[in-house]
Design goal:
260 residues; mainly alpha; Arc Repressor Mutant, subunit A; Four Helix Bundle (Hemerythrin (Met), subunit A); 2 domains; two-stranded antiparallel sheet
């Protein structure tokens, strides 16, 4: 492979020119891995071969590899059989990194549910009649974790998180990996917001009951293979949860308003 070059497109070239040399080499290595059809677990060439292949100094290659390792795309092992290997970024790590981006964005319940209302009914419809009995039983076992009303604030918090696990489980069955990732990420974000802003503290029996009942109805629709019923049930679940969670959000906001 010839030394790293800049793209002919002026806009792309300007973007690349603002990157450091190790960043440009890291991108070139990623492109080469794709071109070579390498898969997670495949071993990358040694340092000397990378120096020759990319026409860069040892320090630049080492820094590029450190960048790729920090991104989770390369894993280094020492000892016999060691070296640098192509590594797949896990959903958990990718979602955690993306969550850091939104950490200071002050997302609201409305922000999250705008996407949930658009996406989750379509996921539910796509899964109707496609899940096996073991998958459906796992969803029912998840619902059993909050089958009775919480007695304490701690139980309420645990049940809120468990009810979001139901949606993460559904996301894990998505045929479209991007759809599954986004829905799983939103469930994680909502779980973090619920805990960090203590939205579970104002006791809300309707939120618990309606959420549980909608999820039970959804499992029935999935088992029966009724895509329209699954879509309708999930849409009602999302809209109802949004309305009630916004009440929780407003109540907690008023709690921390200064006295006038």
């Amino acid at each position: 492979m010839p030394p790293v070059t800049t793209p002919s497109d002026p806009r792309a070239a300007d973007s690349v020119s603002r990157r450091s040399r190790p960043e440009r080499v890291a991108e070139a290595i990623k492109s080469w891995v794709v071109a070579e059809n390498m898969a997670p677990g495949d071993k990358l060439p040694g340092e000397q071969e990378l120096i020759a292949r990319f026409g860069m100094a040892k320090g630049t290659i080492r820094e590029a590899m450190r960048l790729l390792e920090a991104q989770g795309l390369v894993k280094t092992r020492t000892g016999p059989g060691g070296g640098s290997f192509v590594h797949a970024v896990s959903d958990a790590r990718a979602q955690a990194l993306l969550g850091n981006y939104f950490y200071f964005k002050n997302l609201t319940i409305a922000d999250i549910y705008q996407l949930r209302i658009a996406l989750e009914p379509e996921l539910a419809a796509s899964l109707a009649g496609r899940l096996g009995e073991a998958d459906l039983a796992a969803l029912e076992a998840n619902i059993a974790r909050y089958d009775t009303p919480p007695a304490t604030a701690d139980e309420d918090r645990a049940q809120h998180i468990a009810s979001l696990d139901f949606h993460r489980r559904l996301a894990g069955h998505a045929e479209n990996p991007l759809l599954g990732f986004v829905i799983g990420f939103m469930s994680n974000m909502l779980s973090d917001i619920t805990v960090s802003r203590r939205l579970y503290e104002p006791r809300n029996y309707d939120l618990w009951r309606r959420g549980r009942d909608h999820q039970r109805a959804l499992v029935r629709a999935l088992r029966e293979g009724d895509a329209e019923a699954a879509r309708h049930t999930m849409a009602a679940h999302m809209r109802g949860a949004r309305d009630l969670m916004e009440v929780q959000e407003a109540r907690m906001a008023r709690r921390f308003l200064p006295d006038r």
